[in-house]
Amino acid sequence: MEEEETRRCWPVPRMHLLLLLLLVFAQPGNGDEDKQVHDPINPQSVQQWAKTLGMELWTCGKYVTRRDDLLERYNKQHANVIERSGSNIVLEMAKEVKEMMDLKISALKRIMDAAEATAISSHDELVLEHEYWNAKLIVPQGEEVPEGSREMVLTPNSHFYNIPVNTSFSTVHVPTNVFDGAPDVMRAIKWSENLDSIFTYNYKFDPSLSWQYFGSSFGFMRQYPALQWKQEPVDLYDCRTRGWYIEAATSAKDVVILVDFSGSMTGMRKEIARHAVNSILDTLSNNDFVNIFTFSEETQELIPCFRDTLVQATLANVRELKGSLEELETKDIANFTTALTRAFELLQWAREERYGAMCNQAIMLVTDEVPALYEEIFQEYNWKELPNMPVRLFTYLIGREVPDVERIKWVACANQGYYVHLSTLAEVRESVLNYVQVMARPMVLKRTVHPVTWTPVYADVTDPKMTDWLWEMKECAEQKERFESYRKDKEKFDSKEEQDRRFAKKLRRTQDQTSGDLIKYQLMTSVSMPVFDMRDNANITERILINEAYWVKRRRETRVANLLGVAGTDVPIQDILKLLPPHMLGVNGYAFIVTNNGFVLTHPDLRPVFQDILKPSYNSVDMSEVELMDTETEARELSDAMKAFRDAVINQSTGTVTLDTRYHFDGMRRASRIRRHYYYTAIATTPFTLVISLPDKYGASKVHGVEEIRRSVAEGQHIMSYFKGKDWRVHPDWIYCKYHYDTEHEFDSAEHELLHFLDRAQRPGWHWPLRKLSTPPEHQSDANGKTGKVDKDSYYCDRNLFLSLLFDAKMTEGFSKNLSESPPTDSEKGLKEQFGVTVSFIATHTGLTRWHDFPLGVDPDDANVEGQFSSHHNKATDELWYRRAVEQHMVQPDSFVYSVPHEVSHRNDTLITASHALFLNKNERRAPVAVVGFQFLQSALFNRFQNITSKCAVPNCKRTCAHQNVSCYLLDNHGYVIISDELQDSGHFFGEIQGYVMQKMIDEGIYQRIRIFDYQAVCFKGDGVTSDATPSRMQKHHILSWFFDWIVSKFLFLYVQTSLQDIWHSSWAHPSGGEEAYEEIYEDTTESGKPGDRHKRTEGKVLINRTRPQTCDQQVDLYQLNTRLRSPRGSSDKKGKPITNNQKYEIKHCTRPFLIEPVETSNMLLVIVDSLCEIPFHEMTVIPNEVSYNESLACHRLRGNILPRKTLSPCINHHPKEKEIELCGRANRPIHAWSGLIVALLFWLLATE
């Protein structure tokens, strides 16, 4: 039939809440005698099935959860429903966060003052040897002490992530490319030991302080408390390349990198140039802007779509730039005039348009020769307002044999820059970092201002460059597993079942965008400030080239403005979240913090980890990428409302806005729509803005009920009795009461901690202290004028949460007892046993969870009360079943939400979770007070479902679900199968099983499509490499990078003494065993012939295709039951469209219906499908797919609307006295004799290309 005919509506009585979709299925044959006539399924029977099942579940749920009793008790005890003011909450939270951050800044100022005072008195000291605590060379007490190492007492400390530390000392980390025996380095290490007393004082005053550190401009970092430094497989850490150091040392900057790729830049010069550019890029942060031009005869952007602009130096953009450097070829003669002109004009455009960093500007020139001085270009673009120069020019001379040094040095010196000569790979990183000192000079000369800098979110000491290496190690492990499986059992390896298993595993690996162990990465922000060398002049030793023939050393005094380093401390994101307590926001409410760039510092949908690896651009997720508006727009198209909201947030305004949004949950398997109210305000003295989001309607109210301890004790009540037994938990992450020094008072669990404070609260002298210290010690003193410190027994409490928890504990005290003592009716008891109920539970808005076990066939009194439920479901309002129940209440108040684990397959012990929200209605307000629920066996529901649907519920019923050609399903409100004729369908998306039926339900508006864009996704681009014996290009890239970092280290020297082939053979080419482990696979010959043929055939089956993780956008269509459709009972919207509509779909000569009936008092649909005829195949999936832009994501984002940002202040980029400083360059340093061995190795690696 024609399409328009297939969409005709057949009227049915309104009294039936039923959708009858008639499908026409063609059967083969010619003529009427071949047409099959089937008895239709009776709609009234289906309706009765759904009603019976729904009412039985509702009755069972009410009984086992004691829903009515609990509501009555809350109402009798005068619990009130009051307003939740978002405007007041956001101001209060912002104040709390600001006061906490002020304490960290206060601690930094003490470190900075002590460092500057100590350094100025130690500059003339000659230190050739000094024993210090080297973090890499300390060994915990009791372990074997290798030669050169020292033993230290290290104790695991919960405040420092259970890392063994020593709070009496600090330790020093020295990068692999820094020689700690150099006199200047040793002197700085020695004088910085005096900072230990400051570190200790800070920690005693503010026990919430995390790691404190001083990063020296020489490269070492002194960190408190002391710890053993371990970073596998190689230590890449250099504090001078970390965001907290770079951003504090220099104001924000625009950088244009000019790379000479003329014909002379070949071989090692080309590799040195690449490494120099990569090292410069590593020093940039989210507040910086950059572009790279390559030039020979013509000057071109490294990435064509970055033409005539600067791009923000996010991890994603930097990664794009680094990747584009790999394939460049050298050619022609360098045209410096065009290159310099392009660079100056681009920076001039940025100044005039007020685009980019709007502070420092610099050109980095990487070349092997400068043929002229180009004074006319500098006069035109940089010398018009002398002595101020808008642009600094840094020159990097590449190669050993260079024709002229003076010209390229003059170019840098004449433009307030710095010159370095790079003749080996070993010196690149250290030499590149010289530009930081130069750009810091105006700040050092000013002295009176020590700007406080906050970083974006980042993952502690983890280097972002490790992402590719870790992913490659995962693929190596997979390759090894495939080889071993093939060698062990070739037939099984080739079997369909094993192929399906591998395919499913790969699919989960590549599509699950929500997996990952976030805990091990310790997300944080850091606050830092520069530490200045307070000397005006210093004695220096410089090397002078005489007659371009030989070098001599000269010592003289000169004007200096040196940066000693940067002082910093970490602020873990978890510490910030403690000041944004979820109980103040209520269920489905949340808070997040946004930086001046619009990136989120913390957000519930920030997903920085993928399969335990940091995502390539995890710390530059824009707020518009996690707050998804409910609009039908294409990817990355922002609504005007979202743009206005974002602008207000980054400009640190105070206000409120209401927006319609969509969001995903349950591992991006479900989605929903909700109207949200946003409240925002600045966190003063920081670049951050706090935003809270409350759901519409119920989010504006909260339940208020407290149990005053003193009154209860006076009335003779035993409040400890509220927490008898072991069948209760409190939210493990919420703070009710806590000691400042939690390491001095450790508890086995949050419950033991609560009982401890509850016992203390009943004793005389109890008081409710402030939640934290809010006054820095310099502003705090006692009557004698002495600054106070935190006592080890001091504590703080959230009084309202604590007392509200007691109230809830009192209301729910008899949850288990009432159930066992109250005599059930025969039907209630029968239903509990019939459905196989295993546990009932209640969770309250104050974080309290209680449960009652019903072990099947076991007396409850003899049961183990510490079952599995408590270990998996102890987070109350954060639990998925809690949040879904509250949302379901707004659709259908008298209903349970039912859910089954995803893809549970054939397991017989699978549990279905049912939950129902309890709302209090008072003072014309409604608010959720708790959620009750129960778990029961899926197998029991399956049996009861079959029993109900296999019987005719009305006369003239000829077909039921017992008929072999009738398929019956229970679906939840997101289209996932709860019950099916086939157990393996449970937990799967219905569209994957009956795609045609699901699509028809969507077409008719039964289910609504909700398209979700995932802007934090990771995709995998093939690099065309498989696992053979030759090192991959990526492997060689890693080898090169690691050797650059190891060259000056004594560890490298020992390493080089071993076999050169082991460098890639065992660690990088394969996880273990090397190629020999797999050679035997190819030794066999088949009947058809040669070992080589065997190798080729096996290669296609066993070898995996290498990939590289890349940032990408993905989209997925998820579905939700149309909440505007009227349900049988309990609907909150009686004016909605009823689920009552018949559709006829004809396919050839076969007409067969499928019927849909809402299951009363639930979120489920009963779907009956007649499968006598072949239903047309229609593929549906809820697996995310990459959004195709026909260009890289970086280019697409640049072509779209560039989102505004707020520039940081202060900007310190010039000082009149800087012209007095003569130091503007140095030649290459001598290197060790064995460096030739390293260079030879590097050439070997390049030759294997």
TrEMBL record:
Coiled coil residues, start to end: none
Ranges where the record places region Disordered: 770-789
GO molecular function, one term: metal ion binding
Gene3D superfamilies: PAS domain, von Willebrand factor, type A domain
Subcellular location: Membrane
Topology relative to the membrane: Single-pass type I membrane protein
All copies of domain VWFA, residue ranges: 254-436
Domain of life: Eukaryota
Signal peptide: 1-31
UniProt keyword annotations, A-Z: Calcium, Calcium channel, Calcium transport, Disulfide bond, Glycoprotein, Ion channel, Ion transport, Membrane, Metal-binding, Signal, Transmembrane, Transmembrane helix, Transport, Voltage-gated channel
Pfam family, one: VGCC_alpha2
SUPFAM superfamilies (alphabetical): vWA-like
Gene Ontology CC annotations of this record: voltage-gated calcium channel complex
Disulfide bond recorded as keyword: yes
Protein name from the UniProt record: VWFA domain-containing protein
